[in-house]
């Protein structure tokens, strides 16, 4: 596709109408299809046991209107696969497979569009052929630990910048060469991991662009307590980073965080919040707190767009229905804007 560099992301957003829709939660949908994710690999376990379910979830999101689909590699690490008894070669092949499955879903969707293109039928499926990006997900070191530390950013004093770079290096290289359009560094919980990612992108001559997405518990700082503007500035400093934003954070915090990020970067801002629930690391489950309905979630979308977000989707516990509603809301806004004198 030749999707390289900051200009290409700006071009993609412009071509999409000034905004683009990211997909939603993966694990909840896999479980809805019958997958058992009670495993340290979480959704990545389906790369081994049931990649066809991952492909189906990608398709569901494309039919809901997503223009960017994120691979099932968030918790897929070479170290994690090796702990299951797989070889290094087999582990790297599974990382590549996460991108292949997403690309297969995109091709199937495009083929269906050729068979009968239409937009917004009664069944709610969006079957208009459009440009679609595959983002290769890289979760934090805390996601590999599977102890909930990606929601605290507390890795302990023994984890250094060098530790994090060594942990992520080969995974970044493999995913960068897998055919994805960009890398999605997701749920970044602290400043040191953001710095590790920047150095890996620059030192390893990674050929595809990336986005950086942080998470927050309070709407002011990232979950570790590090300053959000400082973290966003680290992302802004890297030419290979083409968008900066927030994911897996309560919708009620997003508005203020967009404004905070805008102060330190001119790059496109992406946001894909969770449903408003919080993750209980001890119980390993999501707990209702400020959970919002799809209707409530969607009520925020126009405001997020107005204050500067141009890539919008959902994270944990959001569904194709959420993404369908986001797509419809943004398309209605686009129609209204183009009809104004």
Can you lay out the helices and strands and say which pair or pack?
Layout: H1 6-16, E1 20-21, H2 27-32, H3 45-49, H4 51-64, E2 68-70, H5 78-82, H6 88-115, E3 118-119, E4 126-127, E5 133-138, H7 141-145, H8 161-176, E6 182-188, H9 191-203, E7 210-214, H10 228-236, E8 241-247, H11 251-262, E9 269-272, E10 278-280, E11 285-287, H12 294-307, E12 309-312, H13 320-339
Parallel strand pairs: 1-12, 2-5, 5-6, 6-7, 7-8, 8-9, 9-12
Antiparallel strand pairs: 3-4, 10-11
Helix pairs in contact: 4-6, 4-13, 8-9, 9-10, 11-12, 12-13
Query: Mean pLDDT, as a whole number?
Result: 90
Radius of gyration: 18 Å
- What is the H/E order? HEHHHEHHEEEHHEHEHEHEEEHEH
Helix count, per DSSP? 13
**Strand tally:** 12
Identify the strand order in the major beta sheet. 1-12-9-8-7-6-5-2
Q: Which blocks of ≥5 consecutive residues have pLDDT under 50?
A: none
Helical/strand content category: alpha/beta
Largest sheet: 8 strands, parallel
How far from one another are the termini?
Answer: 36 Å
Helix content: 40-55%
* Mass-distribution shape: globular
- Percent strand equals 5-15%
């Amino acid at each position: 596709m030749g999707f390289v560099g900051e200009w290409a992301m700006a071009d993609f957003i412009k071509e999409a109408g000034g905004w683009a829709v990211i997909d939603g939660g993966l694990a909840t949908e896999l479980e809805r299809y019958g997958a058992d994710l009670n495993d340290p690999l979480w959704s990545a376990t389906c790369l081994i046991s049931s990649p066809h379910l991952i492909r189906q979830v990608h398709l569901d999101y494309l039919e809901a209107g997503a223009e960017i689909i994120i691979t099932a590699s968030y918790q897929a690490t070479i170290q994690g696969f090796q702990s299951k008894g797989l070889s290094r070669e087999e582990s790297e092949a599974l990382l590549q497979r996460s991108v292949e499955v997403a690309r297969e879903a995109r091709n199937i969707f495009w083929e269906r569009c050729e068979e009968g293109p239409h937009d917004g039928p009664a069944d709610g499926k969006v079957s208009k052929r459009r440009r679609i990006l595959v983002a290769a997900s890289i979760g934090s070191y805390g996601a590999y630990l599977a102890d909930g530390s990606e929601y605290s950013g507390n890795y302990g004093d023994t984890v250094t910048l060098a530790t994090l770079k060594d942990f992520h290096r080969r995974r970044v290289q493999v995913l960068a060469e897998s055919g994805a359009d960009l890398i999605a560094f997701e749920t970044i919980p602290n400043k040191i991991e953001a710095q590790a990612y920047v150095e890996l992108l620059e030192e390893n001559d990674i050929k595809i662009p990336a986005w950086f997405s942080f998470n927050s518990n309070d709407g002011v700082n990232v979950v570790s307590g590090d300053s959000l503007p400082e973290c966003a500035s680290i992302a802004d400093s890297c030419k290979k980073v083409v968008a900066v934003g927030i994911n897996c954070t309560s919708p009620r915090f997003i508005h203020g965080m967009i404004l905070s990020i805008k102060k330190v970067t001119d790059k496109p801002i992406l946001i894909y919040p969770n449903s408003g629930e919080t993750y209980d690391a001890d119980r390993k489950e999501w707990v209702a707190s400020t959970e919002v309905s799809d209707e409530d979630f969607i009520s925020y979308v126009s405001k997020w767009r107005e204050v500067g977000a141009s890539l919008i989707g959902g994270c944990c516990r959001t569904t194709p229905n959420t993404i369908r509603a986001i797509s419809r809301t943004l398309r209605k806004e686009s129609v209204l804007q183009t009809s104004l004198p």
